[in-house]
Design brief:
- The complex is a heterodimer of chains A (120) and B (230).
- Chain A is mostly helical and 120 residues long.
- Chain A is built from four helices and no strands.
- Chain A is elongated and about 85 Å long.
- Chain B has a single domain, classed as Spore Coat Polysaccharide Biosynthesis Protein SpsA, Chain A (Alpha-Beta Complex).
- In chain B, 40% of the residues lie in helices and 16% in strands.
- Chain B has a seven-stranded mixed sheet, with helices on both faces.
- Classes of the chains: A mainly alpha (120), B alpha/beta (230).
């Protein structure tokens, strides 16, 4: 890993940690959802500060360069995270649909009940 | 209360809704009807309220599937025996409800108002998709449905319960195929359909292709892995 790349990674991960924490302070982000970004940022920073970790892992796994291994692992982590987001959106989608249907049906049934009481 | 509930999902149908509903009220009082206003941006809701129509009103737009599911839930809780999905744009004709009712009384779970039981399906570009979906259903569920994309379908309480309680039950051919694979009895009855009275159709060429692709993938692959239902 070149020195430029290492400095770049450290700066970027530092900025993202600050950004995530500021979002939490402003009550714009729930802590549950911030954990992923904090952990990933800290991991990137560690790898940039101690490139030995990535180099050692790369040789162990037979990957040509440490940077390639980092790319590969990052893409994999992002894919997993993306899938968990899709799951979350799908579940939210179902919940919103259910809630809206419930509200509309209950409203209708309540007016029907009132009309029946009024008639009798 | 009547045995059959006519469910009319409506999204921006101010031009047609009055004509369709008045016809049902005046000439077909043997059925109850219920409009589901799916968060229309036009005056659909106002027309319904002003005329005192039965309407379930969604505060936001959710899409056709939810409109149908809401109707199913309502019909199930109110104790209706059958529910029929009926277009708000005037495409479906109420005189075909009676033969569909007779058929479902014979013990079917779903009866489809089909354009091609006694009439031949034309070899037009529009029907390519219909043929593909038909073929996919025949291949996976073992029975040919001649008009799988017809939106005029009558369901019994067994279906209402399934649609109400679980996700992934849309009013689409892939659900029909899934139900058939699970032993639900599906039959078709000849019904004429009209061109929509006013307004533009939702189905453009791009949307049609996207729809067909989704249906084929769903019927041929995904439905095989779904849990069995009873």
């Amino acid at each position: 890993m070149s020195l430029v790349l290492r400095i770049f990674l450290i700066v970027v991960s530092f900025i993202s940690i600050i950004y995530v924490i500021r979002r939490i302070r402003k009550a714009k982000l729930r802590i549950d959802y911030s954990l992923f970004w904090i952990i990933v940022s800290v991991l990137i920073m560690l790898l940039a500060i101690f490139p030995g970790i990535a180099i050692k892992l790369a040789t162990m796994m037979g990957v040509m360069s440490a940077v390639n291994l980092i790319y590969l692992v990052m893409i994999f982590i992002l894919l997993l995270h993306n899938f968990s987001m899709t799951m979350k959106i799908s579940s939210l989608d179902s919940k919103i649909n259910n809630l809206t249907e419930e509200i509309a049906i209950r409203e209708k049934m309540n007016t029907e009940k009132k009309e029946e009481e009024y008639d009798s | 209360m009547k045995e059959v509930l006519i469910l009319i999902p409506a999204y921006n149908e101010e031009a047609n809704i009055k004509k369709v509903v008045e016809k049902l009220i005046n000439d077909y009082s043997e059925y109850d009807y219920m409009i589901v206003n799916d968060g229309s941006a036009d005056s659909t809701l106002k027309i319904c309220r002003d005329n005192g129509y039965n309407v379930i009103d969604f505060p936001i737009n959710l899409g056709l599937e939810c409109g149908v599911v809401a109707g199913m839930k309502y019909a199930y809780r109110r104790g209706y025996k059958y529910i029929i999905q009926f277009d708000a744009d005037g495409q479906h004709l109420p005189e075909y409800i009676a033969p569909m009712y007779e058929k479902i009384e014979e013990g079917y779970d779903v009866v489809i108002g089909s354009r091609f039981v006694t009439k031949k399906k034309p070899f037009s570009a529009r029907m390519i998709g219909s043929r593909l979906i038909s073929g996919a259903i025949k291949l996976t569920a073992g029975k040919r449905i001649k008009d799988p994309t017809s939106g005029m379908r009558m369901y019994n309480r067994r279906c209402m319960e399934a649609f109400s309680k679980e996700i992934n039950y849309g009013p689409e051919p892939d659900t029909i195929s899934y139900l058939m694979k699970n032993g639900y009895k599906v039959e078709e009855v000849q019904a004429e359909m009209q061109e929509r009275m006013a307004g533009s159709s939702y189905l453009t060429l791009t949307r049609s292709i996207a729809y067909m692709t989704k249906m084929l993938i769903s019927i041929l692959i995904i439905q095989n892995f779904r849990k069995k239902t009873n």
